Amino acid sequence: MAHRAFQVATVMSTAMLVVAIAMGVAGFALDPAAHHVSIGDDFHVGLRGQGLDSRLVFFNDAAYGPYRGSIVSVSGSVGGGLDPEPARVSSFGDAWGVSYRSFQWPGATLWTLTVSLWIPIGVLAVLPAVRWGRSACRAR
After folding, report:
1. Beta carbons within 10 angstroms of residue 106's beta carbon
2. Of 13, 88, 123, 129, which cross-links 104 as Cys (Cβ 3.0–4.6 Å)?
3. Cβ–Cβ under 8 Å, residues 114 and 59
4. What is the pTM of this model?
């Protein structure tokens, strides 16, 4: 029974690995601001290629798209006060293939989470590699 479960898990992992690799290749041809899947009004998912890396991109504002490192606001002094009010920024990364940026104003929020596709590719490659290694050892 355990052997059968390992076989099924390996086949599923291999299939998902192929999908993840295809998504990685597609990420270089797609613009997540224009080509994304919307899950509700405030949650969108897209793909973006960066150098040798493709990223799964999660973001909340389809009109603006995912944050790419651009200027999101400029504060200036008007009558002794700030106009517009500066954004409150929360962020982390790009560590281990994950980064997050969030900008909050009194009436709006803009956030983007990116995850490198190398993470799921690495995880999904484990079972097929073990299966291939076991087959190679048996062949000897």
Report:
1. 8
2. 88
3. no
4. 0.78
- pLDDT beyond 90 at 34: no
For the chain, the DSSP string reads -HHHHHHHHHHHHHHHHHHHHHHHHHTTT--TTTSEEESSSS-EEEEEEETTEEEEEEES-TTT-S--S------EEETTEEESPPPEEEEEEEETTEEEEEEEETTEEEEEEEEETHHHHHHHTHHHHHHHHHHHHHH-
136 band by pLDDT with thresholds 50, 70 and 90: confident
Average pLDDT over residues 78-92: 68
